[in-house]
Design goal:
The chain has about 280 residues and is α/β, with parallel strands linked by helices. Helix 11 links the parallel strand 3 and strand 4. The model has no long low-confidence stretch (mean pLDDT about 90). GO terms for molecular function: carbohydrate derivative binding; DNA binding; DNA-binding transcription factor activity.
């Protein structure tokens, strides 16, 4: 992991592949800010109440060669500007402190999501959306709001899409898709069984499927053609998924622009037409 900004994000993305105990160990270590180059393996193991072998095992499952590389990665990350952006909100914070902490946490999510972005996957996703005959977007709750925002932007440039936030409607959509169609499935956890069922049916029928999720090793990520990951540090009050949505909105804005660039002449022409239709309805 050459970029220090990616260390925490890569760890978070791999959490679903860990057992509950391994996940606890990873979370314990990630939460520590006092690890130095002299911190021994023994101390880290004792603080998590596990064996030294368990810490080494967790480090390897998280993508490091061993504990020393894991320790070095964490030290580099904690000295990066991205890590310094996050601060927990406390009950005694003033309004000014709350605003600063919320904004800085969102900035951290944006910086780390940008750092881990797979540009090859991003370009494949833009190609799928540009070439698609039908574009269906799946998501529940807050994810559905992101889907609607993206669908609105695509309509502005003449690319029609449909948003489904109901389980039965998703399945009916998936049943009617084919090789010329594309799906974007939004899920923070990547473990929504209903969403995965719809995605698997869509792929069975030949549609290309893009996942927007927080976990690269999630069940959803393993079931699609392309994975675009967002990342955010968990916050007791805001929650991890709330902050990750900020990153997802920006990620999808970029994907919208990249898709429009595939045929910029048509996109600009359709944008003028749709914007003019709205402007004419405004009161003078």
């Amino acid at each position: 992991m050459d970029n220090p900004q990616t260390v925490a994000a890569q760890i978070r993305m791999r959490l679903p592949s860990l057992t509950p105990l391994e996940g606890k160990v990873a979370a314990d270590i990630l939460a520590r800010k006092d690890i130095t180059a002299d911190t021994p393996l023994r101390e880290v193991a004792e603080k998590s109440d596990v064996s030294e072998a368990m810490v080494v095992k967790v480090a390897k499952k998280l993508g490091f060669a061993g504990f020393r590389e894991f320790r070095r990665g964490l030290i580099d990350y904690y000295h990066s500007g991205s890590a310094a952006l996050h601060s927990e909100i406390s009950a005694d914070d003033t309004s000014g402190e709350i605003v600063q902490k919320v904004f800085r946490t969102a900035m951290q999510a944006l910086e780390e999501t940008f750092a881990i972005l797979d540009l090859d996957a991003f370009n494949r996703a833009a190609d799928f959306l540009h070439q698609a005959q039908q574009r269906d977007f799946y998501g529940f709750g807050g994810s559905a709001q992101i889907a609607r925002d993206v669908s609105h932007k695509f309509l502005r440039i003449g690319l029609r899409s449909s948003v489904f936030d109901d389980a039965h409607m998703m399945m009916m959509s998936a049943a009617l898709l084919g090789p010329k169609d594309a799906v974007i499935a939004f899920s923070h956890s990547g473990e929504s069984a209903i969403l995965i069922d719809a995605v698997e049916l869509a792929r069975k029928n030949g549609a290309r499927v893009i996942a927007v999720t927080n976990y690269h090793d999630s069940s959803l990520a393993r079931a699609v053609d392309v994975v675009l990951c967002s990342t955010a540090e968990n916050s007791a009050l805001l929650g991890e998924n709330a902050t990750a949505r900020i990153a997802q909105l920006n990620l999808l804005d970029a994907l919208f622009v990249a898709t429009a660039q595939r045929d910029r002449v048509a996109a600009d022409a359709n944008l003028r037409r749709t914007m003019n239709s709205v402007v004419q309805k405004r009161r003078k």
